[in-house]
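Friendly challenge for the regulars: who can give me the structure tokens for this chain first? No prize, just bragging rights.
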Amino acid sequence: MTEPVRHIFEVAAEQAGQRLDRFLAEQPELVEAHISRTRVKTLVEDGRVAVDGAPARAVSVKVAAGATVSVDIPAAAPAEPDAENIPLNVVYEDDQLIVIDKPAGLVVHPAAGHESGTLVNALIAHCGASLSGIGGVRRPGIVHRLDKDTSGLLVVAKTDRAHRKLAALFADHGRSMPFLREYLAIVWGAPDRKTGFVDAAIGRHQTQREKMTVVHGDKGKEAVTHWRVLETFGADKNGKPVASLVACQLETGRTHQIRVHMAHIGHPLVGDPAYATGFRTKEKLLPEDARAAIAALGRQALHAARLEFPHPVSGDDLAFESPAPADFAKVLGVLAEAQAER
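First reply, four minutes later:
Bragging rights claimed.
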């Protein structure tokens, strides 16, 4: 087994007071090795970073002048998942990255209960040895993910350099770098304004551990979703829409973020088995063909429709759009027909 490579650095006077992750991420040797601040955090959590011989407690500790910081970087591990010949809808590909239009039902990376048949298995077969391993052996090259039953655009890094740049881009979510990730969602009801945003931290549900929820205080992670209403359908006894088509843009990327946030403001996604169970009576307000289309959908009505970002190496602007898949489009179609007949 290959031994990890140890790097040792001394903190100069002008570097005193820096956070540990910033200090390490700015070291030329580590920059050359594509070690980002996110990667430094993982190394600290794994006990591979020491300050003056003692294991570092956190990436936020401040380094002192004259301190010695050592980092043990493990050798790259091969991807463990097997290559599987699963068809991929490749939207774009070059030697640095690949953009996939993921179908609903496909799990992104192997996990308990889904050890094979994942997007990662398909990517290993498609990309071979070029696939980046810096993201971890269970999800090589993956810089963001879509839920199993969410369809749409997903970008994967094929090199460590691309992985580092894309990971930073997705972590930034357009706050300081050009970036757009937009989803289409069919939701129950409709917000009372055309545009708005949800700023509510998300954390693991206390009792239903497979679910996420809005939490208060410091127990969750910051989460911000911007939404705008594109179209409304039907009307209840109070004249309010039964459902609507909403475009959502993410300012952060938390697990189930859109699903949790839209449910939080009273408009959960149509077909969502986890967050819309209390809204099934809404279906009774729709015509039979609309109810049948929702039943056939069998999943949350969520589709990653637009993705725009600068190329991680060339800097060229990249922009991709994915049309709604057939099951999603069917629901939209029958809702629109019912609206036209009113």
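The domain at 5-73 is CATH 3.10.290.10 (Structural Genomics Hypothetical 15.5 Kd Protein In mrcA-pckA Intergenic Region; Chain A). The mean pLDDT is 89. Your move, everyone else.
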